[in-house]
Amino acid sequence: MKVYGDKKVWFVTGSQHLYGPAMLKEVADNSAKIAEGLTASDALSAEIVSKGVVTTPEEILDVCQAANSDKNCVGLILWMHTFSPAKMWIAGLSALSKPYMHLHTQFGAELPWADINMHYMNLNQSAHGDREFGYIGTRLRQERKVVVGHWQRESVQQQVDNWVRAAMGWHESHTLKVARFGDNMRQVAVTEGDKVSAQIQFGYEVHAFGLGDLSAACDKITDSEIASQLELYKQEYTIDAAVFDDAHQLEMLQNEARLELGMERFMEAGNFKAFTNCFENLTGLSGLPGLATQRLMSKGYGYGGEGDWKTAAMNRIVKVMSKGRTGGTSFMEDYTYHFGATDQVLGAHMLEICPSITDAKPEVVVAPHTIGIKKDIARLLFTGASGPALNISTIDMGTRFRIIVNEVETVAPPADLPNLPVAKALWEPKPSLEVAGAAWIHAGGAHHSVYTQGITTEQVIDFAEMAGVELVVIDENTNIREFKQELRHNAVFYHLSQGI
Q: Residue 66: how many CB atoms within 10 A of its CB?
């Protein structure tokens, strides 16, 4: 079973009747073998299903409309084994609402030099047929992924899987519901936004709930359920015996169990896969959820602090895109800087960092929360694993959305932080904090982000192209003058592309 279960990608091959039934049978057989070979590859995270050969405008339209209505089809891989006149594809591609990849490959890798004849040439015309097909995608001004190379090559299969994972994220975006418990942090700009525009652009829904709705769900959690949850905490985390011996600390831990179970039950009932809350808006709750939020994120829920629903949605989408891969994904905030021989960022939040980003066993501690409701709250302590990572921010520009990506290198802190009672990660932005910080600010990036070691920049680019939104990347090649010029050019492009 592939990691995405019933979700599939359709493999559709183009040809035409010019070549006769015998050759079309070869085309169909070869197409099925490619789909089977891709599915069998460990590099692919989802099943690739052959949908046969299409040879007429009617067949092409039928398969595109069938893909649109199939809930388990997240996208299509299109390939021209022979020449397939591209005017046949206009109606189908115009109707297609699922993302598609153009795989520019051919069935055999090496040419059989001594045996090549015109039958071989007519059958293996991808070098020629895919160019005709590529033209119509460009003429229709469609965003699509183009992958070039032999389908059995590891690098090609990796590119295909990157796109498959982005398509899974896009599918999730169109079925995602975000629960907002309370409102945004007061007077904060970047966490606000147009939820109607977001639903039009990305597909996800954002629903607001009063704290009374959530507290009612939490109040229904029984003492026996809480006791069972505490046993799970003992198994999964390091917890000092003093926490259980001290009545106050035990009560704070029990409180987190109640909040976790109550929030999860509420979201399961409403089919929500992401949520927000705000430390300024907690009436009816016993405190800001700490351990509870961390555990829900580790189960796959997206989260955004202080009502940040855009980050909550993107958090969930990235978790889906990274399913089955090493490397976690968390809500994050650039909290404070270390200006030294190499400038660094210490990322953290008040409580809510996902333990999926660490490679060590987290510790449960009860410590004071000093913003909003000031009280002791149980939380997980750990440090993010070293290695490459991304910070991703989705912002509302008013007339469009922009996704910002900064590539970073996470490192181990040079010393212990014994007095910092929150989870954290230390990273070095590319190309440097000086350039990355300026570029992030010029782009309008939020102080909240989705921090991940589970996906690549290429996958975020693929997702942004599926969504039709602007994306800018801050990496080792970024310089401010060119970056500002890119932002200016993007502003013109996206303004004109929306029409009058």
A: 12
Is the CB of residue 467 less than 8 Å from the CB of residue 173?
A: yes
- Residue 352 is assigned to a ligand binding site: no
The CATH architecture one would assign to domain 8-173 is 3-Layer(aba) Sandwich (3.40)
Q: Is 470 annotated as a binding residue?
A: no
243-260 tens-digit pLDDT: 999 999 999 999 999 999
Separation of alpha carbons 467 and 172, rounded Å: 12
Closest-CA residue to 334 (of 309, 353, 320, 357): 353
Burial code (b: 16+ CB inside 10 Å, e: under 16) for 229-265 equals bbeebeeebebeeebeeeeebbebbbbbbbbbbbbbe
State which amino acid sits at residue 451: Y
Tokens standing for residue 43:
């590099």
d(CA 455, CA 462): 11
Name the 3-class secondary structure at 223.
helix
Picking from 408, 407, 486, 404, the residue whose alpha carbon sits closest to that of residue 441 is 404
HEC profile for 150-202? Answer: CCCCHHHHHHHHHHHHHHHHHHHHCCCEEEEECCCCCCCCCCCCCHHHHHHHH
Residues of the chain with CATH 3.40.50.10940: 8-173
Strand partners, 85: none
Residue 238, classed as helix, strand or coil, is strand
Read off the pLDDT band of 7 (50, 70, 90): very high
Instruction: Give φ, ψ of 165 to 5 degrees.
Output: -65, -40
The one-letter amino acid at 93: L
Q: What pLDDT sits at residue 466?
A: 97
Cis amide prior to 414 (ω within 30 degrees): no
205 a known binding residue?
Answer: no
Distance CA 169, CA 442 (A): 27
Contact, 34 vs 107, CB < 8 A?
A: yes
Q: Three-state DSSP class for 384? A: coil
Reported as a pLDDT band with limits 50, 70 and 90, residue 500 is: low
Residues 178 and 197: their CA atoms lie apart, in Å, by 15
pLDDT in tens, 467-481: 999 999 999 999 999
- Inter-axis angle of helices 223-236 and 247-270, nearest 10: 100
Q: Is 306 annotated as a binding residue?
A: yes
